[in-house]
Amino acid sequence: MVDGNAAQWDAFRSQKRSAVYTPPFAPWMITALQLAKFSIFVALHSIMLFGAAISKGIIIFLATNLSKPSHSPLETKFSKECPRAVNRDDNLHAGVHISLLLVHIVPDVVSIVQCFYRLTTIGRGQGGINIPVIFLETCRTMGFLLMFFHVFPQLDMLRALLITSCLPIIPIAQKLLMDVSRTMKDEHSLMKRFGMTLATFPSFIVFLVLTAGCYLWTVLDTQFDRYIILPLAIMLASLGFWESWVGVGHAGTFFHHLHQMKYGIRKMNAPTRLLTSTIRIFITLTVFVVTAANGKVTMKGMTGVLFHWRSTEKHWPLLIVALCLCVLHIILRISSRLLAGLELRVLSGFHPIFLTSPLLLTALVIHCHISPDCWIASKVAAVGLTFRCSQWIAAPIPFNDIYLALMWLLISMYKGYQFASQPNFDKHDEIIRATPVVMNPFCIEQSLLVFEFAISRDESKLLKLDFDSILDEHSGKQSMGSEGDRTANVYICATMWHETENEMKQMFGSILKLDEECAHLSTRKTRHFAGNANETPKFRLEAHIFFDDAWEDQPELGRAPNEYFRTFFTLLNSMIDGKEDASSNDPTKVLIGTAYGGRLVVRLPAGTLLFIHLKDKKLIRHKKRWSQVMYMYYLLGHRIMESHMSIEDKQLIAENTYILAIDGDSKFEPEAFLRLLNLMHNKSDIGCACGRIHPIGRGMMVWYQKFEYSIAHWFQKAAEHVFGCVLCAPGCFSLFRAAALMDDNIMHKYTTTAVEPRHFVQYDQGEDRWLSTLLLKQGYRIEYAAASDAETYAPEGFEEFFNQRRRWTPSSVANTIDLLADYRRACANNACISRIYILYQFCVIGFSMLGPAIIFSMLLYAQVAAFHVNMDRIIVYNTVPVGFFIFTCFAMESNIQLFVAKVLSIGYAFVMLAVVVATCSQIVLETMFSPTSMFVVGMIFIFLFAACLHPREFTNIIYGIIFFLMIPATYVILSFYSLINLNVINWGTREAVAKATGQETKKESKLETKLKKAWNGATGTILRRKEKAGDKRIEELERQLEEVKIAVQRPNSFNDSQIRENELAEKPWEDEEVSSDGELSDGSEMVVRTSQKDLWMDAEYLQVCEKGRLKPSEQQFWDQLIDTYLKPIQTSPEQNLAYAKGLKDLRNNVAFSLILLNALMVLAIYLTQNHKDVLAFSWMPHEDFKQFRWNSTAQEWTKQKVPLKVEMLGLSIIFALFGILLVQTVGLILHRLNTMVGAFQEIKAMGDFVTTAATKREDDDQILEAARSLLDTSYYWRSHGGSGYTRDIGADREAVLHRLQRTRLATAIRNHGLN
């Protein structure tokens, strides 16, 4: 073991606890997106305008009905044409008051719940309480409550609407005072001051007109007596609307914090929001109690409303309307934020704050005085309400107040237009957009404003200092690094094994495209201005391919690269032939001997270096996980930790270094990678971002996987992204942040060698899932970018598919259980993982374990309904084959298991047709109201809806037919196959396990021999295959002998040519000690001479390459790394037998437990169905419900008024499954909305694609982070701020490398003290 103080690369810890622009969108897709964007703009604009008008109209209608009419008001056309006798009992009277109370109090209750959740989950870095905001929001609340609960009951709807137009009185007074103060400055001449004084008269007159609203009805002869409350309410509400009088000029003044909060520079923290909401609720309840007492609301009426929630009660519609208003307000706020996120400004002349009052005024005048609608009057009269078109007995004397009130409206419209108007900013400025921090339900149009603030290049340096003080508000920092800081280091790391030529071609082709794109971005002129998070960052690219098991023994060359590398080398030459830079004197291909085998370094056409690491499994551990350990420690440990830089520079490089993990058959476009890079660049708490994986290939199994991958990404991954974190970042296309991998308990723990049985399952069978689990438990977020598409080859054969899932399923379950078992640590470290999310995952994993029982029971009852066979016989017919398969999995070899599985899968595919018939029969007989019918129809509708949201993948819904037919195969047969083969930890058949444990392969029985013959065909076919294999071997030996002749004629010598491969330098080769059989040995060893070791470089097809040597420091690094973590595992036969026994014991415990659990579930469903008459309850969907029943007398099906029989166990299963599906559907919608925002921003960045994209590319692909901030779907308090604001995982999170450096120094001091 190497001393950790001497090797800086081993500082990581585990603790207990394109050049030619290819547009990413087709022209028709761009047109469709632009039309969709325009449609969304029109739709959201209309929703905001008419929704705000409806909300305000209903609230004013309820407020004017708070008082019972005690006299006959002045007659209007409405009262003449639609006379209605209104009878209001105590319950209805109390219902009106409680409805208004709910509208105002529900948002504050929700806000308190959110704040408590945030304080309990995050609990740090919340900052101090903002007293000015609390005071002003209290004033606004008090003003509106007094106005709506005390003033409006004495007014008709028209006057109540017009009095709200007096709210701009404080901004008008502020402007008047500023104008007057300018006239008093001595630097102006007397004449100019006189002219400025005259200019203040318009503001003075407007102020007097608005002030008249405070006392107008007091001086006129009216029945209005709220002459003290009215001016107080107007002044408090106007003062509380602080966003109207706080502007950019208040920066640096007493109102500086208000300025920051208005424009999103500072966010309202949880303590301030909690205290604000609590005070608002207290004031609301106080005013409500006083109003109820004055309005003679009885306690009997209050209890009748609160505790009698029957739909037959007359006050029920009032409560429904109140709750609908709460939902409407949420929709309006989301619409406003979405428009801001899309950079679509609401037209000032059509903004709700400008047009709501005129629209309502027009509607009221038409309804009350021009064309009354008596139908509406009859409906509201049924619940004891009426339209108060007139409240007073006679018109005001001595003049009509309406004319003055109309002037209030005009002034309010003018100020509203100013509020809604936003200045035009320079396109190079960073725009921050924010919405009001507190919702105002009684005047919702105030909460729909969007305030924009521009940070120019000069201002950004000044604002950066101010941002440092905002960290305690949990808002994150702006990214204001220099251009050099914004250049990322990207390493493509591909792991290969025995891929086909076509798979190699698509992977290497993707690397070549990204090589060209990197060169294009590095030479393109871009404007770098501070804080712009919309800009695609530049990056330096380097590619690494780790070739597993790439060596073989050859007689003349010893250990040499195998045929798979030769295939790749030939493919590489053909794909880059003619593209190299002929003017460059640097070599393009260099061979290097290494401690782990060998390396080929290739300079790609656009300048990117490609490192092909050829791993010899006799020198270093093979398989994918150990290849990942290789590149993590090489690129992050050796390249960064052992560099001669300060710890600050290392931290900066680590934060801007990313590893793109791909497989040997991955295919992706540069745009897909750029989207991941942009996402990682803009959000600092993301440890990994993964894309949308598309399976490719041929055959029915690939069709099945196309639909399976689709619904997994559409529903499961989208829901994980929205409500928590993605649990698995696929190794075929994921971008990792270097600083995250270097953190404690991730990179170092990933080197753990499996010794316990469960470790073999969790660590080695699903390495991608385990690495994701480590990231999540350490506190890093994994996100899913649906717009980043990648393709990978899927298993095409039945056997290959089953073996793949045999590896994946146990590993996924093991890692999920590991995360759930350690949920306290995960929730404490990761702000994006909540207990609710843990509960959701618990439900998902629970039902996946019970999946075989649920599907098996469905098959049983479907066959009974379709074939009209006795249930007991059907159970026997299905239990025998499934039981035989379970026995086969325990007792026979894998090829026999797969043969039986294939036969059963085909048989049950036909049985699924019975499920279709049974389901259709149940829908016809029991109508759509039966739980099963609703579940099936709802699921089909949801799948079709999801496909419509993914138009480019819509055709995948066709493959749902194959998926449906294979449900028994995958949910029952495959589940048992994966479960019972839990102890098989290799990637092949069970015979490989027997060989690995030192046991002799068992001889085949007669039954096995016959089955194999049926599986492979005639034995003659097998013999012919062997003969062909022998011929092929003879040809290979002849070719090798020819190469030996050539090698003898050519002397062994090194070429002095070298390249700079990250400080490659000359170094004599050091001797490697290997045993005679090529494996590391504990006893006698023999030294292999350097000339013999490097004979592989003299192969004829490698003569186009030059030879190089490693730098001594890198050679030392590889020696130490292999000795510490990657030495080939050597175990004795006794240890192998112990591992095999432990795995078998684990298999037996888990398998028998889950088989017993599923058997009990099947039995429970069977018994409840058999005793359905006793255990089920009757349900009548509606009064006239009828279902088809067999009439034995008439011998036909007739409709009978019979209730449905529903048993609780089946209903609970259906509700749980459908509930999970609904949650995932909500996540799907929100994630698609987020993806659509990114697509719109890319279209905007592309400009006019049809006319200019073919000749020039001026702007980077932009995915606007402001949209993601404003449209955050998980947390409300993160929904403010502009681009560059990142979700914070703890403002006090210490830099990773600083922690590692401090620990390393402490260890060195401790060791020095001990010595």
TrEMBL record:
<keyword id="KW-0175">Coiled coil</keyword>
<feature type="transmembrane region" description="Helical">
    <location>
        <begin position="129"/>
        <end position="152"/>
    </location>
</feature>
<feature type="transmembrane region" description="Helical">
    <location>
        <begin position="96"/>
        <end position="117"/>
    </location>
</feature>
<keyword id="KW-1003">Cell membrane</keyword>
<dbReference type="GO" id="GO:0004100">
    <property type="term" value="F:chitin synthase activity"/>
</dbReference>
<feature type="transmembrane region" description="Helical">
    <location>
        <begin position="198"/>
        <end position="220"/>
    </location>
</feature>
<feature type="transmembrane region" description="Helical">
    <location>
        <begin position="1150"/>
        <end position="1168"/>
    </location>
</feature>
<keyword id="KW-0808">Transferase</keyword>
<feature type="transmembrane region" description="Helical">
    <location>
        <begin position="346"/>
        <end position="366"/>
    </location>
</feature>
<dbReference type="Pfam" id="PF03142">
    <property type="entry name" value="Chitin_synth_2"/>
</dbReference>
<dbReference type="InterPro" id="IPR029044">
    <property type="entry name" value="Nucleotide-diphossugar_trans"/>
</dbReference>
<feature type="transmembrane region" description="Helical">
    <location>
        <begin position="958"/>
        <end position="980"/>
    </location>
</feature>
<dbReference type="InterPro" id="IPR004835">
    <property type="entry name" value="Chitin_synth"/>
</dbReference>
<feature type="transmembrane region" description="Helical">
    <location>
        <begin position="932"/>
        <end position="952"/>
    </location>
</feature>
<dbReference type="GO" id="GO:0005886">
    <property type="term" value="C:plasma membrane"/>
</dbReference>
<feature type="transmembrane region" description="Helical">
    <location>
        <begin position="226"/>
        <end position="253"/>
    </location>
</feature>
<keyword id="KW-0328">Glycosyltransferase</keyword>
<keyword id="KW-0325">Glycoprotein</keyword>
<protein>
    <recommendedName>
        <fullName>chitin synthase</fullName>
        <ecNumber>2.4.1.16</ecNumber>
    </recommendedName>
</protein>
<feature type="transmembrane region" description="Helical">
    <location>
        <begin position="1208"/>
        <end position="1230"/>
    </location>
</feature>
<dbReference type="Pfam" id="PF23000">
    <property type="entry name" value="ChitinSynthase_IV_N"/>
</dbReference>
<keyword id="KW-0472">Membrane</keyword>
<feature type="transmembrane region" description="Helical">
    <location>
        <begin position="837"/>
        <end position="862"/>
    </location>
</feature>
<dbReference type="GO" id="GO:0006031">
    <property type="term" value="P:chitin biosynthetic process"/>
</dbReference>
<keyword id="KW-1133">Transmembrane helix</keyword>
<comment type="similarity">
    <text>Belongs to the chitin synthase family. Class IV subfamily.</text>
</comment>
<keyword id="KW-0812">Transmembrane</keyword>
<feature type="transmembrane region" description="Helical">
    <location>
        <begin position="874"/>
        <end position="893"/>
    </location>
</feature>
<feature type="domain" description="Chitin synthase chs-1/2 N-terminal putative transporter">
    <location>
        <begin position="26"/>
        <end position="416"/>
    </location>
</feature>
<feature type="transmembrane region" description="Helical">
    <location>
        <begin position="315"/>
        <end position="334"/>
    </location>
</feature>
<feature type="transmembrane region" description="Helical">
    <location>
        <begin position="905"/>
        <end position="925"/>
    </location>
</feature>
<feature type="transmembrane region" description="Helical">
    <location>
        <begin position="38"/>
        <end position="63"/>
    </location>
</feature>
<feature type="transmembrane region" description="Helical">
    <location>
        <begin position="274"/>
        <end position="295"/>
    </location>
</feature>
<dbReference type="InterPro" id="IPR055120">
    <property type="entry name" value="Chs-1/2_IV_N"/>
</dbReference>
